[in-house]
Every structure is written in structure tokens, then in C-alpha cells.
Amino acid sequence: xxxxxxxxxxxxxxxxxxxxxxxxxxxxxxxxxxxxxxxxxxxxxxxxxxxxxxxxxxxxxxxxxxxxxxxxxxxxxxxxxxxxxxxxxxxxxxxxxxxxxxxxxxxxxxxxxxxxxxxxxxxxxxxxxxx
Length: 131
Fold this sequence. Notes:
This protein is mainly β. It has a single domain, classed as Jelly Rolls. The protein is 5% helix and 50% strand. It contains one helix and twelve strands; from the N terminus they run ββββββββββββα. The strands form three sheets. Strands 1-9-6-11-4 form a five-stranded antiparallel beta sheet, with no helix packed on it. The radius of gyration is 15 Å and the shape is globular. It starts with a strand and ends with a helix. It holds the Pfam family FdtA. InterPro entries: QdtA_cupin_dom, RmlC-like_jellyroll, RmlC_Cupin_sf. Residues 6-130 form the Sugar 3,4-ketoisomerase QdtA cupin domain. This is WxcM-like domain-containing protein.
């Protein structure tokens, strides 16, 4: 199984004109993107996520603000990623428990490898550990 890891997207531009970053399938995103969603205005006291997926892989990007992403694999390996640059993301593979905590100004962009399917979610931590 692949582990979570940081992705750096190309950053083109300059301070006086601004920047653009691009994520291309295969070159920087390790799957075909089938769904895009974003979260915003999440209170800092809220921890989101608290689930894993059977099939879905994701790339999470903090397009604004800061997001702390905690991941855990079924073997117990835990990693913490701090996203605070819009030209960097974190890859979340299937069967990876993950949580996110946001700064008040955070906007998270999520790129997913599958369409939404409620049965793909593992929301019970003990079920995740047994999967």
C-alpha cells in the first residue's frame, strides 16, 4: 500500500504579478480526478475527516490558510502534514484514516479518484483497524 506523501505543484510567476500552480494527472496527481470538492469557514475547534476510504484516493490542498492533516495506516504508522502553501498538497491513499483541523481562514481543495459513494467510507475506527 502506498503511504501518504507531500506533493509539490509547479509555481510559476513572481511577487509583482502573482502565481499560478498547476496539477496535471500523472505528472503531479497520481490518479485520474473524478470529483472535486472544497471546505471552508470551518471553526478551528472542529476536527473533520475521521474516516478512511475503501477505494478513494485523494489529494488535499490548502489553497488558503493552514490545514493540519493527520494520517494513520492500518499498521499504526502515523504522520502529520502541515499544509499552508497553495502549491503543495498531500496524497491520501485508500485505507488511510485521516483527520483535518483548519485555521479559520483555511480553504481546502480536495481532488478525489472516485465519484461520491457513501459505501466507500469507513467511519468506524475499529472497523478501519480490522479492514
